[in-house]
Design a protein that fits this description.
The structure holds two protein chains of two kinds.
Chain A lengths: L10 H4 L13 H13 L1 H19 L20 H30 L2 H5 L6 H30 L5 H14 L1 H13 L2 H18 L11 H7 L3 H14 L5 H28 L1
Helix pairs in contact in A: 2-6, 3-4, 3-6, 4-6, 4-7, 4-8, 4-9, 4-11, 6-7, 6-8, 7-11, 8-12, 11-12
Chain B lengths: L25 E10 L6 E11 L4 E5 L6 H8 L7 E6 L4 H6 L3 E4 L11 H9 L8 H7 L15 H13 L5 E5 L7 H15 L4 E6 L2 H7 L2 E6 L2 E6 L1 H7 L3 E6 L5 H6 L3 E7 L2 E6 L2 H11 L3 E7 L2 H9 L18
Parallel strand pairs in B: 3-7, 3-8, 5-6, 6-7
Antiparallel strand pairs in B: 1-2, 1-4, 8-9, 10-12, 10-13, 11-12
The chains are: A mainly alpha, B alpha/beta.
Chain lengths: ~280, ~325
């Protein structure tokens, strides 16, 4: 005990006892800044909010009086083809929002931010929760922007359809948060957008978001039904058609969520071991 | 025993300073870390023992690839040692991080370009259970006037002071700086060290890795010289300099006897040529006294070795290849 000299007057105070923060350091400041960052990124805003709205206007406007129901007209209360396209575009916007929020970890890894975070008490689960919520925040704006455009051009639907379709498009996009996280933890940053861009276009096309799957050639349909975008689109548009609910679509989404979720967890563990 | 006075920094009523109970800031024994396998196996850290008391300012000095960063990564819990024990204020490195007892300034990266300086500090502050006020930390790091600036618009030196501000937030007992001034210009380096120096005056324990000798000489109480994953010398700057075989005495002396000079205690080598003698010795006074009293020596000069000589002598690798065994040079260990 006598061997240690007095280091300095403040040393004992500086090294005093500290607490470990609750909830793995999840907090409002962290979430607020994450959301602000999502909305500050112009490219993300373009692809998640502006692009679906423009696509909807370009392809949906002309069908606002075309019924999807052979027996009734839009004037008689049948949903229009425009409503169908609107929901597809909402799914697309939410999907882009979630993918980019998850994929942002690739850039944060490259910049060394994830390493910096490991020098703080932040728990990885809290960090991933923030990514998920950040994606959902901009995804909600994407869904609302598309739906608002629909209201403006005259899409009329029962209130429960708006809510169910919107919620399905919005929360269903969590599948793509998981996908973004998986790719973000696997692929070095400079390649992530090169990889994501074509992959998202592929998924949107083959999942029938730009064009209904049943209008495609049979081999394309056979591929398309396996995509998570198809499953999600089917669920979101289900309240529209009034047809029997497609349980295969639910199975599809759950399967992909499991695949991407486990993949993201494994990729995350591989990444932190190496840091 | 430690100083019972606690002058600065607010204490929590339940808090007891670890040093009061004799806890070391760093207590590492037999650290080993190996990368790769087979013929590509690299022993990055090979048996490091390091005890650092609270309040010490320690320079980790060594050439590139000596194992400085690997050691620091283990201190911070970013990697696990293959063998050996390691505690920071008596806790595991990860627990010390979770409690905000240790923080670090890394040499590059670790910043989000799209955030402002204040946002970066605020988000980091939000992650700790107890944190210093954001503006106070910005001021201490000398970047309060840059608070609204985007990180990508900051110079290298400004970014480094931002990293320093982030490291101060938890008011950690131990601050680790990994080559903190690499790539800074002279002014940036001076400002940065001014901020660090003001901070260490408050009694914080600091470990900094560097290959700038003058930084180690100027700012450290203690220098730990590492070479090939091992500590080859550990002491004050003056002690390290002495390890590089003391001083050199030169004089013009026609009748100085080389054998007599060599017999003086502490003398390492004697060169005598054309009436000039050059003596390397650990005890320059004895040699000077002999030359001035027993010979006709004139123009006597005593030059002390600087840290660079010590650095080269202690860490120099005669061989370039990895296959050869440790060079059989004399080290100050």
């Amino acid at each position: 005990m006598t061997t240690l000299p007095a280091p300095g007057p403040a040393a004992s105070a500086i090294a005093g006892r500290r607490d470990v923060p609750p909830f793995g350091s999840f907090n409002a400041t962290l979430l607020g800044i994450e959301i602000r960052r999502r909305f500050r990124n112009r490219r993300t805003l373009f692809f998640t909010v502006a692009f679906p709205v423009v696509m909807f206007l370009a392809f949906g406007l002309q069908y606002r009086d075309t019924s999807i129901d052979a027996g009734r007209t839009v004037a008689q209360g049948a949903p229009s083809v425009a409503a169908f396209i609107m929901i597809s575009m909402a799914v697309y916007g939410a999907m882009m929002a979630s993918t980019s929020a998850g994929g942002a970890v690739a850039i944060e890894r490259q910049l060394g931010w994830s390493r910096q975070l490991r020098l703080t008490p932040l728990h990885p689960a809290a960090n991933i929760s923030v990514k998920i919520l950040g994606g959902l925040s901009i995804g909600l704006v994407a869904v609302l922007a598309t739906f608002a455009t629909g209201v403006v051009i005259g899409v009329r639907l029962p209130i429960h359809v708006w809510i169910v379709a919107g919620t399905a498009a919005w929360l269903g996009s969590l599948v793509f948060t998981a996908m973004g996280l998986m790719v973000g933890y696997l692929v070095p940053s400079e390649n992530v957008m090169q990889f994501m861009g074509p992959a998202m276009a592929f998924l949107a096309f083959f999942g029938g978001l730009f064009q209904p799957l049943d209008q495609m050639a049979k081999p394309l349909q056979d591929i398309g039904v396996w995509t998570p975008t198809y499953g999600l689109g089917e669920i979101a548009r289900a309240p529209l058609s009034g047809e029997a609910f497609n349980w295969l679509a639910v199975g599809n989404v759950i399967l992909w969520l499991a695949v991407f979720g486990v993949g993201a967890a494994l990729a995350f563990r591989r990444d932190t071991k190496r840091v | 025993m430690t100083n019972p006075l606690t002058l600065a920094a607010p204490t929590t009523s339940r808090g007891v300073g670890p040093d009061r109970t004799g806890l070391l800031a760093v207590d590492a024994t037999g650290l080993h870390k190996t990368f790769g396998a087979g013929s590509r196996r690299v022993r990055a850290v090979n048996g490091v023992d390091l005890q650092i008391r609270p309040g010490e300012v320690v320079a980790f000095l060594g050439p590139n690839g000596a194992g400085k960063t690997t050691t620091i990564d283990m201190l911070l819990g970013l990697s696990k040692p293959d063998a050996g024990s390691l505690t920071i204020f008596g806790r595991s490195p990860r627990a010390a991080i979770a409690h905000g007892l240790v923080s670090a300034v890394m040499q590059a990266g670790g910043l989000l370009k799209d955030l402002t300086v204040r946002e970066t500090v605020a988000v980091t502050a939000s992650l700790f259970a107890q944190s210093q006020p954001v503006d106070e930390v910005l001021e201490r790091a000398g970047i309060l006037d840059l608070a609204g600036r985007r990180v990508e618009k900051c110079s290298g030196g400004q970014q480094q002071r931002l990293r320093f501000a982030m490291a101060l937030l938890s008011d950690p007992g131990l601050l680790i700086l990994d080559e903190p001034t690499t790539g800074m210009d002279v002014e940036g380096r001076r400002d940065f060290w001014q901020a660090i120096r003001a901070d260490t005056a408050r009694g914080r324990t600091v470990i900094f890795a560097t290959h700038y000798l003058e930084e180690a000489d100027a700012y450290a109480d203690r220098i730990v010289l590492v070479r090939r994953g091992e500590i080859v010398a550990d002491g004050t700057a003056a002690e390290i300099k002495n390890l590089a075989s003391g001083r050199t005495v030169t004089a013009t002396a026609g009748n100085a006897d080389a054998a007599t000079l060599a017999a003086i205690p502490g003398v390492d080598s004697v060169e005598s040529r054309a009436g000039k003698v050059r003596v390397r010795t650990k005890d320059s006074d004895a040699v000077a006294r002999y030359l001035l009293t027993a010979t006709d020596a004139v123009d006597l000069e005593i030059t002390s070795h600087n840290l660079e000589d010590a650095f080269v002598a202690l860490t120099g690798d005669q061989d370039e290849t990895d296959e050869t065994p440790e060079a059989p040079e004399t080290t100050g260990k």
